[in-house]
From TrEMBL:
Residues 23-290 form the IspG TIM-barrel domain. Signal peptide: none annotated. The lineage of its organism: Bacteria, Pseudomonadati, Pseudomonadota, Gammaproteobacteria, Lysobacterales. Binds 1 [4Fe-4S] cluster. It comes from Rhodanobacter glycinis. It comes from the Bacteria. Residues 1-20 are annotated as: Disordered. Pathway: Isoprenoid biosynthesis; isopentenyl diphosphate biosynthesis via DXP pathway; isopentenyl diphosphate from 1-deoxy-D-xylulose 5-phosphate: step 5/6. Converts 2C-methyl-D-erythritol 2,4-cyclodiphosphate (ME-2,4cPP) into 1-hydroxy-2-methyl-2-(E)-butenyl 4-diphosphate. The keyword Iron applies. One of its GO terms (biological process) is terpenoid biosynthetic process. NCBIfam families: ispG_gcpE, PRK00366.1. Residues 1-12 have a biased composition (Pro residues). This is 4-hydroxy-3-methylbut-2-en-1-yl diphosphate synthase (flavodoxin). The keyword 4Fe-4S applies.
Length: 419
């Protein structure tokens, strides 16, 4: 006699967040139980305040809660206060992070207005200085952070490790009864670089609640291994990101694969999706991917997402694809206004389905859903609102009518925020 298989366990909820020390960056809190923060980075020439401020504003309006900029030359450092002022005139309050390599100690010393204008400094311990200069140049940056009350991200990177540390760990490894493999040694060097630098920063007087750590690599499994390890060895807030993730679907897939595992395990306080943008494409793509990753995992809500069927032989018309695109683009265009005006609208669910097989069922599960006619079906599109059939749309203006229904629902359903 055939037996039914045993009942499968319910899908696991994301693990409880790893306890970490909270770090205040402007008005944004990272760690300490705060929601996971999305950040991004500009690719403009920082020496050009107008273009850099414009891109920062675009990233902020797309939902980036922290934006990092390159500060690599005296002119770039001098431009930072002007960038901040331009953003203020545009009504953009996103914290700006200064990314320093090699000469950060000089730039912060020579441009005090830059040191004051930035909300946070990011330094790479492998690029702060070499040999005998490392200690003094690292100390100089930390002292500026203390002077101006700024937090610091100590961001170790696989591509710029302190080679003297690597050599020392290799020598230590050679004496082990069971030596680690080379990749394990490299991971340990990365983690040790971050942790030792954090310890030294505290010794210099930087408070623990002004330190964030990151250990970035470009391989998915290596990133998972590194963060699993460092998360058990400290309580600093952790920034997650797969460095040099790549372009398009490869970059999205690799970043999502790595970060989703860590986030599911409760590791990570802030994330960036480091995508190479398509030529001419907006930099905001990486922000949208980060938001969608957190939202589809049930960790945060940023904007209404559209459930849409992939299409099959029942849906040879492209109309449902076009409608899904129109609805998603309309939501993204309206969200900056809705976010300010309505409380909770980011939790709205939508469905655009292409035929009768799953269309009515999926539409009933959404706040607003529409089931379009597939091949051979009557030319009618029932609309469901909060699980009940509300109306049927017909004709050539379905897209416009459906978007109008959406706007009316938002205005009626969600509480207007107080001015």
């Amino acid at each position: 006699m055939n037996e039914f298989p045993p009942q499968q366990p319910r899908p696991a909820e994301p693990a409880a967040r790893r306890p970490s020390v909270g770090v205040q960056i402007g008005k944004v809190k990272v760690g300490g139980g705060a929601p996971i923060v999305v950040q991004s980075m500009t690719n403009t020439d920082t020496e050009d305040p107008a273009s850099t401020a414009k891109q920062i504003a675009e990233l902020a309006r797309a939902g980036s809660e922290l934006v990092r900029i390159t500060v690599n030359t005296p002119a770039a450092a001098a431009a930072v206060p002007h960038i901040r002022d331009r953003l203020a005139m545009m009504g953009v309050e996103v914290p700006i992070i200064g990314d320093f390599h090699y000469n950060g100690h000089q730039l912060l010393e020579r441009e005090p207005a830059c040191a004051e204008a930035l909300a946070k400094y990011r330094i790479n311990p492998g690029n702060v200085g070499f040999g005998k200069k490392h200690e003094s140049q690292f100390a100089s940056i930390i002292e500026k952070a203390i002077q101006y009350g700024k937090p610091v991200r100590i961001g170790a990177n696989w591509g710029s490790l302190d080679q003297s540390m690597v050599a020392r760990l290799m020598d230590e490894n050679a004496t082990r009864a069971e030596p680690w493999d080379a990749s394990h040694v490299a991971r340990e060097a990365l983690i040790r670089s971050a942790l030792d630098s954090a310890t030294r920063a505290e010794e210099l007087g930087l408070p623990r609640d002004r330190i964030i750590l990151s250990c970035k690599v470009s391989g998915v499994q290596e990133l998972i291994a590194v963060y699993r390890d460092i998360s058990t060895r400290c309580d600093y807030a952790l920034h997650l990101g797969l460095t040099e993730a790549g372009m398009g679907s490869k970059g999205i897939t690799a970043s999502s694969a790595a970060l989703a595992v860590l986030l599911q395990e409760g590791i990570g306080d802030t994330i960036r999706i480091s995508l190479t943008p398509e030529p001419g494409a907006s930099r905001t793509g990486e922000v949208i991917v980060a938001q969608e990753l957190l939202q589809t995992m049930g960790l945060r809500s940023f904007t209404p997402l559209v459930t849409a069927c992939p299409g099959c032989g029942r849906t040879t018309s492209e109309f449902f694809q076009e409608l899904a695109k129109v609805v998603q683009e309309h939501v993204r265009e309206q969200m900056p206004l809705w976010r300010v005006k309505y409380d909770g609208v980011e939790n709205l669910t939508l469905a655009v389905m292409g035929c009768i097989v799953n269309g009515p069922g999926e539409s009933k599960h959404a706040n607003i859903g529409i089931s379009l006619p597939g091949n051979g079906e009557a030319p009618a599109a029932p609309v469901f609102i909060d699980g009940e059939k509300a109306m049927t749309l017909r004709g050539d203006n379905i897209a416009r009518e459906f978007v109008g229904i959406l706007d009316e629902y938002v205005a009626r359903k969600y509480v207007a925020r107080a001015d």
